């Protein structure tokens, strides 16, 4: 059974998003656990871990998920950062809420739940805001889905 070029492109797009998100998650979780292991408060450690993960996610997303021409640009990064921080705020609020309501919940479990929920917001924000193509590029190549 042959896969159509359009379907192949959609699968590549989804795989890129999952690789970017998975990589960012591993950086986030790894730094969080490392900092907590060395005595940092789990609430204070998370923003630093998130900032590191955000840079990893941006670079992978701009390369594989939402390919952008040319070198990274400040405007693109600022749009990405705005969407990422809003998504992270959602993520962090859920993470903190889970740990407050269930203090014995394992940190990784709270992190996975919060990340899964925030993932949907981040995808659409990145697609529609951070990595939007200029109108001339969209009209020249046709609409992208």
From TrEMBL:
Localization of this protein: Membrane
Keywords on record = Membrane, Transmembrane, Transmembrane helix
Topology with regard to the membrane?
A: Multi-pass membrane protein
The protein's matches in Pfam families, at most eight in alphabetical order, are given as: GtrA_DPMS_TM
Q: Where is the GtrA/DPMS transmembrane domain?
A: 17-131
Bilayer-crossing regions: 12-37, 43-60, 80-101, 107-126
Q: What is its main location?
A: membrane
State the source organism's domain of life: Bacteria
Q: Which residues form a coiled coil?
A: none
Task: Give the protein family.
Answer: Belongs to the GtrA family.
Q: What is the name of this protein?
A: Flippase GtrA
Q: Which organism is this protein's natural source?
A: Kaistia dalseonensis
């Amino acid at each position: 059974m042959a896969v159509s070029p359009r379907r192949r492109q959609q699968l590549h797009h989804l795989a890129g998003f999952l690789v970017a998100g998975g990589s960012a998650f591993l950086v986030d979780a790894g730094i969080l656990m490392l900092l907590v292991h060395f005595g940092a408060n789990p609430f204070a450690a998370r923003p630093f871990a998130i900032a590191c993960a955000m840079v990893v996610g941006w670079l992978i997303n701009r390369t594989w998920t939402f390919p952008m021409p040319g070198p990274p640009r400040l405007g693109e990064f600022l749009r990405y950062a705005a969407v990422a921080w809003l998504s992270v705020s959602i993520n962090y609020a859920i993470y903190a809420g889970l740990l407050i309501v269930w203090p014995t919940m394992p940190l990784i479990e709270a992190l996975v739940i919060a990340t899964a929920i925030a993932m949907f917001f981040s995808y659409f924000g990145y697609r529609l805001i951070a990595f939007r193509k200029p109108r001339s590029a969209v009209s020249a190549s046709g609409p992208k889905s």
